[in-house]
């Protein structure tokens, strides 16, 4: 599930230039290999900052995991094509807009909750968005199988804290705090949806002024998302990573998005391929039906072909139009 087709943006309301689709990774099509990036990456080339102040991360006591960034294709791979494993210091990487238009996107990569598949150097998707004026924050997040005291809630805590930090620092980045969207891919799509339905849920004790901010996104984009943790449509790898010691159906329901949608769920866009053999398209279909039942603004695109990653499909043009219609861009 590591290889992804990600966003290639068409011109939508003159927001973005037309670009060519390309196979890519979980948080955006990769940049071309850069010889200045060593084969053993050290620090993220993109500007970044920690999500949690030192010593304030919830559930960290007793965790012995050691974070490592790896090349996803070490034999002949692009040195920008990396992933973070055993995340212990979740960060936000910032792709600043040259001329901010006030909009911001929290981008959540996938990786089956086994790792976070994201380029340390940034990707083509966030670059195109930033070039068009949107500030992009790409997050890494803790993984449930690393025995955090907060267990399954660790990635959700990170996502809540991330959007609050973006809102708290809006003036610094030229952002309108009321125009912050979230978009996620595969397991990152699950986390984007989880954040969107749990923005009002207290998952950790507030630690500073940033935690007075709302965690609600303006609009949500979920692309070939993991959604349910229940058979028969659950992605087995994500379930195993979320519950390394096994779980009852009742426990799985608590992190299955279809059961806990609030009435004020953000407008939600879904895209999937019917031939996705990794995460069945029923994940998006079930969530779409649940959103429609409660009259949440939603849009669903199921493509005949594309596999896990929607390779070759232009699903971003309708997503951009949906986000614009719901206020992300003026």
Automatic annotation (TrEMBL):
SUPFAM superfamilies, per the entry:
alpha/beta-Hydrolases
State the InterPro entries in the record.
Answer: AB_hydrolase_fold, BD-FAE-like_dom, GDXG_lipolytic_enzyme
Domain (BD-FAE-like): give its ranges: 99-291
The terms under GO molecular function for this entry are: hydrolase activity
Lineage: superkingdom: Bacteria
Per UniProt, what is one Pfam family of this protein? BD-FAE
* Stored Gene3D superfamilies: alpha/beta hydrolase
* Source organism of this protein record: Asticcacaulis aquaticus
Q: Which residues form the signal peptide?
A: 1-24
- Protein name, per record: Alpha/beta hydrolase
Alphabetically ordered keywords of this record: Hydrolase, Signal
């Amino acid at each position: 599930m590591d290889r992804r087709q990600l966003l290639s943006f068409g011109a939508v309301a003159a927001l973005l230039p037309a670009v060519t689709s390309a196979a890519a990774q979980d948080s955006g099509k990769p940049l071309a290999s850069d010889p200045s990036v060593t084969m053993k990456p050290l620090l993220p080339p993109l500007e970044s900052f920690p999500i949690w102040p030192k010593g304030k991360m919830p559930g960290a006591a007793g965790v012995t995991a050691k974070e490592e960034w790896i090349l996803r294709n070490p034999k002949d791979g692009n040195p920008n094509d990396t992933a973070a494993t055993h995340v212990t210091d979740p960060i936000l990487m910032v792709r600043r807009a040259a001329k901010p238009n006030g909009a911001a996107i929290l981008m959540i990569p996938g990786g089956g909750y086994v790792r976070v598949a994201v380029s340390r150097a940034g990707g083509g998707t966030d670059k195109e968005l930033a070039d068009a004026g949107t500030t992009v924050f790409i997050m890494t997040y803790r993984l449930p199988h690393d025995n955090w005291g907060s267990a399954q809630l660790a990635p959700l805590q990170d996502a809540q804290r991330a959007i609050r930090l973006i809102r708290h620092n809006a003036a610094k980045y030229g952002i309108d705090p009321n125009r912050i969207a979230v978009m996620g891919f595969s397991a990152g799509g699950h986390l984007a949806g989880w954040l969107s339905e749990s923005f009002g849920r207290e998952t950790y004790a507030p630690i500073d002024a940033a935690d007075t901010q709302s965690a609600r996104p303006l609009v949500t984009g979920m692309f070939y998302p993991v959604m349910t943790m229940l058979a028969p449509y659950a992605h087995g790898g994500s379930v195993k990573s979320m519950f390394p010691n096994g779980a009852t159906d009742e426990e799985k329901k608590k992190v299955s998005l279809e059961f806990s949608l609030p009435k004020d769920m953000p407008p939600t866009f879904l895209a999937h391929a019917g031939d996705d053999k990794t995460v069945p398209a029923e994940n998006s279909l079930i969530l779409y039906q649940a959103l429609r039942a409660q009259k949440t603004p939603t849009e669903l695109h199921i493509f005949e072909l594309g596999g896990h990653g929607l390779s070759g499909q232009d699903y971003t043009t309708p997503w951009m139009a949906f986000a614009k219609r719901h206020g992300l861009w003026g």
